[in-house]
Write a structure and sequence with these properties.
This protein has about 500 residues and is of the alpha/beta class. The chain has 16 helices and 11 strands.
């Protein structure tokens, strides 16, 4: 099999070829590795090789399909999980993460780990450790983050599907930037263990980025369900998620919101993405209605999200130092600034921000009494340019002084938090809602800009809404096909 043929199949299709003895797992791995060798220098998606020898008689629903895992929270025993950090680059994992074991049990052939920003703390993928990942649709642009390496690899055709996770948009943002399907499952549906019970109080979940809805659905079947050391046993539907693909979702009531408190005037292409989607939804018979206001306090939610992120990053840095003996020089400047803000946050303020998640959830629940889904752009702008969010030189120097003198925590008395909200969330103000409320959400590649860049749209569902999201996604996939679109790389 050559690459041109390989690229026409999704993971489900490749698995069928292996099951029917039309191609071997070894052949598929060879094609994937050759494609990686051809393009990875340009996109910098794969940062670590994983030794892989396919089984002679592979078993499982994805037996023999090449696969990549993210180098964050997806431990592979014996290899480091760097989380994009110098401090962790040489610390090997002692056991497989539960999701990695489930992928292996499904027959997937894991042969590499993908690029991610340090601790997954940004919506772009530009770690100092590995260097920036690049978007296959335009190498000057970011593939998003924090699952940017996985998304770039899938968009470039190295693999049809790859491991990802999402604590604030890290599946949906890269999917939106790279023309892929990105489903964030609801809280607890996929496992985080065995080392972690719930990541970020359940805000962070495991999943994939893929080219097709049926792959996303079938991968959710592989991952779904709790584990013995998990915090609870999640409710799962009696039927497979794969059976949702092609099923009629019925006539849905969909509320649409494009402006946000963080970005009241999104890029015209974000509006165009939603308008195109609304037209398709209307043609399909759904009731779509523009909302006069957001169904939650998005300004407060953004600050709550960042405050808890600051504290989480402070904990990540402390944990990495304790585990590896690393000093401050083991971490990036931006990470140390965020960690300082986290350490300067009082425990009362932190608990208050976490407790307010219930307020956001109640407001969203009230919205779902009248609507089945919420529709927004995935991003408020097209994918940013690589390096666009670098700190100015003067700010870098000032930051170094604050970090060296242990006074960076004083920044909480300045406009720094407002500036961080503006810089980091202005282009992606829509995705954090689903994480803090624990609701499922999906980004679909339904729009390309005039410059040929993907710009996804997001649907948010109520608890247990994964099936409806997949049903609608498959319906839109038929109405506005995207899988045959190929980036220029």
């Amino acid at each position: 099999m050559d690459f041109d043929e390989y690229r026409t199949y999704d993971a489900t299709g490749l698995a069928k070829l292996v099951a029917d003895n039309e191609v071997s797992a070894t052949e598929l791995l060879d094609v994937a590795r050759r494609r990686a060798a051809a393009v990875n220098t340009a996109i910098n998606a794969i940062v670590r090789d994983v030794p892989a020898e396919p089984e002679r008689t592979p078993a499982g629903p994805f037996a023999g399909v090449p696969f990549l895992i993210k180098d964050l929270a997806q431990d592979y025993a014996g290899l480091p999980t760097s989380a994009g950090s110098r401090a962790l680059a040489s610390a090997p994992a002692t056991e497989h993460a539960t999701v990695v074991q489930r992928w292996l049990d499904a027959g997937l052939v894991i042969f590499g780990k993908t690029n991610t920003p340090e601790f997954g703390a940004k919506g772009i993928t530009e770690p100092e450790l590995w260097g920036a990942a690049h978007n296959p649709w335009d190498l000057t642009r970011s593939p998003g983050g924090s699952s940017g390496g996985s998304a770039a690899a899938v968009a470039a055709g190295i693999v049809p599907c790859a491991g990802a996770n999402d604590g604030g948009g890290s599946i949906r943002i890269p999917a939106g930037c790279c023309g892929l399907v990105g489903l964030k499952p609801g809280r607890g549906l996929t496992p985080s263990g065995p080392a972690v019970g719930e990541a970020m109080h359940g805000a962070a979940v495991q999943g994939v980025v893929s080219r097709t809805v049926r792959d996303t659905a079938a991968m959710l079947d592989v991952l779904r369900g709790g584990e013995p050391a998990g915090p609870y046993q999640p409710g799962v539907p009696a039927t497979a998620f794969a059976d949702c693909v092609g099923a009629d979702p019925g006539r849905l009531r969909i509320g649409v919101r494009v402006p946000s408190a963080i970005n009241p005037d999104p890029h015209p292409e974000a509006r165009a993405a939603v308008d195109r989607t609304v037209a398709a939804l209307t043609d399909l018979g759904h009731h779509v209605e523009e909302l006069a206001a957001a169904p939650f306090d998005d300004a407060v939610l953004a600050r709550d999200f960042l405050l808890t992120w600051f504290v989480h990053i402070a904990w990540e840095v402390a944990e990495a130092k304790q585990h590896t003996g690393a000093g401050d020089d083991g971490f990036e400047r931006d990470t140390m600034l965020l960690a300082a803000l986290g350490r300067a946050t009082s425990s009362v303020d932190y608990v208050d921000a976490v407790a307010r998640r219930h307020d956001h959830t109640r407001r969203l629940t009230t919205f779902f009494e009248s609507y089945d889904l919420l529709l927004t752009p995935t991003m408020a702008t097209p994918p940013p340019r690589v390096g666009e969010f670098d700190l100015p030189i003067l700010m870098q120097r000032a930051s170094d002084v604050l970090i060296r003198t242990r006074t960076a925590g004083l920044l909480r008395f300045t406009r720094i938090v407002d500036d961080i909200v503006d810089q980091n969330l202005k282009w992606v103000p829509y995705t954090q809602l689903a994480n803090l409320t624990g609701r499922p959400a999906v980004s679909l590649p339904l729009h390309w800009t005039a410059d040929g860049l993907p710009l996804g749209v997001q649907f948010v569902a109520p608890l247990g809404g994964e099936a409806v999201l997949l049903q609608l996604a498959a319906q839109l996939e038929q109405a506005l096909p995207w899988a045959d679109r190929v980036p220029p790389i």
